[in-house]
Design a protein that fits this description.
Number of strands: 5
Largest sheet: 5 strands, antiparallel
Oligomer: single chain
Strand order of the largest sheet: 1-2-3-4-5
Mean pLDDT: 92
Order of helices and strands: EEEEE
Number of helices: 0
Structural class: mainly beta
Helix content: under 10%
Distance between the termini: 31 Å
Length: 73
């Protein structure tokens, strides 16, 4: 079982083409016992087409960095 909660905020567009945002999240996975984690993200959206984001999550197992970029079509 998995539960995820995330809250995000995006700033107004900069120069009418780039949007910057940040967020925080909390997860709980349940396999044999609950395993919580939490972290944050920074995102950039360019011209409503390309998204680049960096997430950092912290749990009892350690800290992980997740980098993602994708094209919205």
């Amino acid at each position: 079982m998995l539960s995820n909660t995330e809250i995000c905020y995006s700033f107004p567009k900069l120069f009418n083409f780039a949007t910057f945002g940040f967020g925080a999240f909390a997860d709980v996975a349940w396999v044999k016992e609950p395993r919580p984690s939490a972290g944050g993200e920074i995102s950039v959206k360019w011209k409503e087409l390309i998204v680049f984001r960096i997430d950092v999550g912290v749990s009892a197992e350690g800290t992980l960095l997740y980098v993602e970029g994708y094209y919205l079509f």
